[in-house]
Each structure stands twice: as structure tokens, then as C-alpha cells.
Automatic annotation (TrEMBL):
NCBIfam families: PaaY. InterPro entries: Hexapep, PaaY, Transf_Hexapept/Carb_Anhydrase, Trimer_LpxA-like_sf. Gene3D superfamilies: Hexapeptide repeat proteins. PANTHER family: DYNACTIN SUBUNIT P25, GAMMA CARBONIC ANHYDRASE-LIKE 1, MITOCHONDRIAL-RELATED. The lineage of its organism: Bacteria, Pseudomonadati, Pseudomonadota, Betaproteobacteria, Rhodocyclales. Transmembrane segments: none annotated. This is Phenylacetic acid degradation protein PaaY.
Length: 201
């Protein structure tokens, strides 16, 4: 994988973590156990430290970076959706950052909070635990329901399982030229978008 040392600091990746070969890690990056780092994620620890705590995930095309002397942290079981940008901020334990959200310097996303897709969380903002924040700029909208928080936990568990699947079965291959008869599908009963969960209410 593209993993780079700078000024004598090199990334640290726990053996129980999965970092995709097409992710880029530079310098002072710490990836804990059971973490998942997706393709094209950029974790650039050339100024401040980048930390992924146990069981967290950062998905495709995400960026983590920070100013000198800062830590950019995803706490245990944190979940960062595709395309998000985290800069000098802290994502609390079991929190979720929606796709293409931007979390700015010194912002704190509280435990089990959710930041909506495409939200812009201003520098220094604090989102309380178990709250939904959304918008540009982001505002705290309301408390999360037990159903929403349970859905988040299930989604993160899927990524923790993906870490195990990727460590054991992911490999480069040549593509087929046509689809084989009876091609199987991945089956994950009960794993659905939140909008579908709400339809069943």
C-alpha cells in the first residue's frame, strides 16, 4: 500500500486492521485494531497526528489532515461516510459522519451523534452526544431516536465484519469477460438504508 515515512515518522497499522492498498497514509498516522480504511482514503499525518481508534472506519475518498500540534481523531467505533473531510477535529465514540460532510478544526462531534450528509461543521463547533446535526453550516437539529442509533451500530458492525472479510479474502484479480450463469449476490439480511427502516414505522 502507499505508506510513506516523513521526517522519521512512519504510519502504524495494527495487524487486525485493514487498510486498502489504494489508500495513502503519510507520517504520523495511527490505525488501531479492527479498523477499516477504504480505497482512495488519504490520511496525511505530515503536520498533525491522525488517529483511528479501535473498530472505526473511514470510507472511500475521505481525507484526514490537521495543523501542526493537533490530533485529528476518530474514536472507537466511529464511522465516516464516503467523501468526508476531517481537519483537526474529533469524532466521538460511536459517532457517524455522513457522506461528503466537512468537519473543521477544533470541532467535536459527541458520542453517538450523527452528522448528516453534505453538512459543514464550522471550526470549534461542539455537537452534543446523541444528537443529529445537519446543514451548511451545520446546526443541531434534534435528539436521535433509539432506532437511529441502533441502525448506526449495525452499519458500523458491517464495516468491522468487512475488515475481517477483506483481511481473509480480498485479492487482486483479472475481471471476467461476461457474467457467469447464476452469479451469486452478497446477502446481508436486515442491512438497509435508514430511509427504508423509517418506511416500516
Amino acid at each position: 500500500m502507499p505508506c510513506y515515512e516523513i521526517d522519521g515518522l512512519r504510519p502504524v497499522i495494527h495487524p487486525d486492521a485493514f487498510v486498502h492498498p489504494d489508500a495513502v497514509l503519510i507520517g504520523d498516522v495511527i490505525v488501531g485494531p479492527r479498523c477499516y480504511v477504504a480505497p482512495l482514503a488519504s490520511l496525511r499525518g505530515d503536520f498533525g497526528r491522525i488517529v483511528l481508534e479501535e473498530g472505526s472506519n473511514i470510507q472511500d475518498t475521505c481525507v484526514m489532515h490537521g495543523f501542526p500540534g493537533t490530533d485529528t481523531v476518530i474514536e472507537q467505533d466511529g464511522h465516516v461516510g464516503h467523501g468526508a473531510v476531517l481537519h483537526g477535529c474529533r469524532v466521538g465514540r460511536n459517532a457517524l459522519i455522513g457522506m461528503n460532510a466537512v468537519i473543521m478544526d477544533n470541532a467535536i462531534v459527541g458520542e453517538s451523534a450523527i452528522v448528516g450528509a453534505c453538512a459543514f461543521v464550522k471550526a470549534g463547533m461542539e455537537i452534543p452526544p446523541r444528537m443529529l446535526a445537519a446543514g451548511m453550516p451545520a446546526k443541531v437539529m434534534r435528539a436521535l431516536s433509539e432506532e437511529e442509533m441502533a441502525w448506526k451500530v449495525d452499519g458500523t458492525r458491517c464495516y468491522q465484519d468487512l475488515t475481517v472479510r477483506s483481511l481473509s479474502t480480498l485479492k487482486a484479480c483479472a475481471p471476467l469477460t461476461e457474467m457467469e450463469p447464476g452469479r451469486k449476490r452478497f446477502e446481508f439480511p436486515g442491512v438497509v438504508p435508514l430511509v427504508d427502516v423509517k418506511k416500516g414505522e
